[in-house]
Amino acid sequence: MTMTPQELEDQKETLELINSELAARLARQSESGAKVDTKAVFLVGFAGTGAQFLASRSFEPFTGTAAFAAYAVAVGFGISVFNLAEYEDIKPRHVLDTYARSEKGATLGALAGTRVGMFEKNARLHQRKTKRWTVALAAVAAGIVLSTVSLVLHTGDHDRHTEPGERTHPHLLLRLLRPASLTPWPTRLSSGRRRGMKASPRATGGAAPGQTVERR
Question: How distant, in Å, are the alpha carbons of 23, 115, 121, 203 from that of 27?
């Protein structure tokens, strides 16, 4: 919008109000961008911690590798958030050199136009930051899920695995689990004889120690 010098002078109060509102809006926009940067730093730190934790554990290879890839994506996009250009603002030296000799109305009009252009450029920058932060957040969430699945799968495989030296023959296992009362008596008798057990005097017809057998 182009205004004549007289119109600018007539609208001094309105332009002053517009400039104050634009300045406040730019401040809120910059504050919002700083919050996105802080959240991005938090996501990068969380992704790095998650990757270090997974690396210090034994994990299932496929899902573990996918988790590391997700953490790498989160770190990459998180760093790109706060590596973007900073928000633009009014440059004091430029304003002084340009508008020092201008009328108040003309200065207010020029400042309002400059602030509008800066706000639009910062809005595009803020949108890119927000999108990258969203991707980093999704990558961290995926990394957490994949890490959990990888650790659970590895624990399950480890519990089902039996070392070759610890294998127990199935017949021996059944024999160990069989109650003694179910063992046939010939087996118990033969095993007792093998261990050097003596038969009962009554069973052999002999006399117990200290007793005299009467002969008929």
Answer: 6, 11, 14, 109
